[in-house]
Amino acid sequence: MSQAEVPSRRTVLRGALAAGALTAAPGAAHAAESRAPYRNPLVEQRADPHITRHTDGRYYFTASVPEYDRIILRSSRTLGGLSTAAETVIWTRHTTGDMAAHIWAPELHRIGGKWYIYFAAAPADDIWKIRIWVLENQDSDPLRGSWTERGQLTTAWDTFSLDAHTFTHRGDRYLVWAQHEPGLDNNTGLFLSRMAGPLTLTGPQIRLSTPEYDWERVGFKVNEGAAVIKRNGRVFMTYSASATDANYCMGLLTADARSDLMDPASWAKSPEPVFVSSEETGQYGPGHNSFTVAEDGRTDVLVYHARPYRDITGDPLHDPNRHTRVQRFGWRPDGTPDFGVPVRS
């Protein structure tokens, strides 16, 4: 794939960055303070965070590191404990060939009695030829045992693709990911497929969303980093949009839990972002989220990254200070999520 097809994120951001255009309304921060019983940032300089709570009650954490060269894991009995938990490097990039650059956005999932990590990587000689790759571990503890490279997860097109997220619904396993669709004037849209197993897609691969609103197209035309939570008879899919600076924000897709998720018409897209930068709390570019629950097993927790400042020198991808943050969130009377604003540090 040529750089003409997918503009490199290393290029100068196109157009005005609309400083201040996507910020939470003044006063919103006060209502959000009660959502923040955790230390923030939870883990510094860890972007694209993914936290899963296993059936044994332990939390497992992984994320992108600023060097984009390795995959790390932490584990703790409590969410707050992830801040000081030992960090283990479970895999390191290749020095040549495939999986040698841009090791991005790992996600850890337990499937069929094994652990899997889905992540993005590029070859050493073509660092923007980013694709989805998979690691597997048969040990009951992902911090032990050995991680085996299971190869590239193949999608319908051999184009820029990343941010794989898997979930189950009504007995079927699905994968949602971000990819550049040939012929479209964007960087990435969101695509959905059923899975035949943890390593294989099956059946049609449908487009769920493409950047269409102005707030999804600032700097780059991006939909990426999807995450799914099911509540109140609906399937909610968050995603992130625009460049990875202060304009980065979260959007939302919603489907009825009884509907056919593989029918694009089942999904409704919110016309406004649902989680944005906040001048009042001093947190910018919130996004690439995941979901977990608090120690009580019931309270929903939003996991995301953000920076504690707006202005960035150079390419935002080279600025290391996207920090992992967590905060509780609630639900509106109509059953939709209320993420509030990024809480203060």
Automatic annotation (TrEMBL):
Region annotated Disordered, chain positions: 313-345
Gene3D superfamilies: Glycosyl hydrolase domain, family 43
Keywords: Glycosidase, Hydrolase, Signal
Organism: Streptomyces atroolivaceus
Residue ranges, compositional bias (Basic and acidic residues): 313-322
Signal peptide: 1-31
Family annotation (InterPro entries): Alpha-L-arabinofuranosidase (IPR016828), Glyco_hydro_43 (IPR006710), Glyco_hydro_beta-prop_sf (IPR023296), TAT_signal (IPR006311)
Annotated protein name in UniProt: Family 43 glycosylhydrolase
Family: Belongs to the glycosyl hydrolase 43 family.
Pfam families: Glyco_hydro_43
